[in-house]
Every structure is written in structure tokens, then in C-alpha cells.
Amino acid sequence: MARVSKALAAVCLASGAVGWALGRWTRRYPQPELRWLRQELTAASNALIEAEQGRADLRRAQRELITAISHELRTPLATIRAAAEALQDGVAQEPERYLESLVGGAQRLNRVTGDLFELARIQAAPVERMPTRLADLLDSALATALPVALDRGVRLHGVGLDSATDPVLVDIAVTTRALTNLVMHAVRHTVPGEPVTVTAVVSGDEIEVIVVDGCGGLMDLGDSAEPGDTGLAITRGLIRAHGGDIRIDQVTDGCRFIARVPAGIS
């Protein structure tokens, strides 16, 4: 990376120096060849700057993902360890509740490892696009989240999903998992009694899924463009690996998650 940065600096300096010299020469002696050379050097310099920025963005995204993974693994492990030690020491007055904590922690670990498996799979090989309907993927996500919503007293609604029936080409497993994670996140963070609505649109070559929850709003509007919750970081990694991204905005008494993914159709 240091070599790339040095090369970038060298090309920028060379481009600037040559551009200055050629600028003086072409003012006195207009020569198409010199103008062409200046344009090529400028284009090469801009390309290197964009490549370096892309690498910086990738490094930042990798750090965020590693931090999120560490948190996502540490939390259920701590829950499992605390419950197991309480049962082992015989201090658990309600063993059934501690057993539920063990099962819940194991289920969360299973979800995280499943997400990581899908993320590793699509980073190691090209995305496996298959024809499907966006409405079917969202029906699956809603069906998975519905029991949790009922248990929490959250009203879960799919709005206008019947219109998302145009065929799309996506990695079905990855897209379904990412959408399920997104809906589950909204349900878990919504105040009991409040709604979670899911809408979807297939527009041209892009899929747009909007999830609005009743979490009470963002803590910091300055972070509205970046998913700050660690659980969302893995979901964002799945969507980014598919060529998309997630944005978060604040709405009345909640948050709006906008996930955009290429539809794979022209």
C-alpha cells in the first residue's frame, strides 16, 4: 500500500510539473501531440487518486465489519457463559429462564455464523444470480420475523408487495438473508404496540426495499447515513457484496432503512 501511495504521489507531481511545462509550451507553440500527452497524464493521475480512495473506503469497511463481528460474537457468548455458570454453581433460582438464555444465545450465534458463511461465500466466488420475484423474498423475510413480532407485540405489515412481482436476477440466499436480518432488526428495536412497515419497488435495474420501524428515532442525526448498529454491519456487508448498500434516515418516532440492490436485469 505504501508503494501505491508513493507511486500516486510521484504521478501527481509529474503530472503537475508536465502540465505546467506543457501549458507554457502550448500557449506559445500549439501542438496537438503535447495537448494529448497532458490529457493522458491528467487522466492517469485521476484514475490513481480514485483507486487510492477506493482502497481507503475498503479498509474502513473491513474495520467496521471486524468490529461488528467481534461484538456480535461476544454478546451471545457472554450470555451463554453467564447462564451456564449460574446453572453449574447452583445459584439459578429459575433454571428454565437460564436454559432459555442458553438457547437464545446459541440461536444468535447460529445466525451470526450463517451470515458470515454467506458473506465469505460471495466474496470468494461470483454472485450466483437466479431468477426470482422480490415479493417472494420479502414474503419469506416477513414470515421469519412474524413470530418475533407477535411475541413483542409489534405490528408487522408488508405494503404494496404485490406490485414487486417483476422478475429479478439476484443471489436468492444472500438477498433473502439480508432482507430477513433487516426486518428482524426493525422488529427487535421497535417499541411494543408500534408498527414496522416493509415496502418494495423494482425500478429498472435496481431493487429498493424500505423498512420503517418504531424505534423512537436515531440517537445522533449525524450518523443517519451510516448503519451504526453492529448487527446491521454484517447485513450491510452482505448487501454490499451483492453490489448494493443500506441507508438510514430518521422519521417520526422511528428509523427508515433503505436497502438498494442491483436487480441484475437490463
From TrEMBL:
Q: Where in the cell is it found?
A: Cell membrane
Concerning InterPro entries, the annotation shows:
HATPase_C_sf (IPR036890), HATPase_dom (IPR003594), His_kinase_dom (IPR005467), HisK_dim/P_dom (IPR003661), HisK_dim/P_sf (IPR036097)
Can you provide one Gene Ontology molecular function annotated for this UniProt record?
Answer: phosphorelay sensor kinase activity
Indicate where this protein is primarily found.
membrane
Q: The organism sits in which domain of life?
A: Bacteria
Histidine kinase domain spans which residues?
68-265
Give the enzyme class.
Answer: transferase
> Catalytic activity, per the record?
ATP + protein L-histidine = ADP + protein N-phospho-L-histidine
Keyword set, alphabetical order = Kinase, Transferase
What Pfam families does the entry give? Answer: HATPase_c, HisKA
Q: Where is the signal peptide?
A: none
Q: What does the entry list under GO cellular component? A: plasma membrane
EC number(s) per UniProt?
2.7.13.3
> What name goes with this protein?
histidine kinase
Native organism: Saccharopolyspora elongata
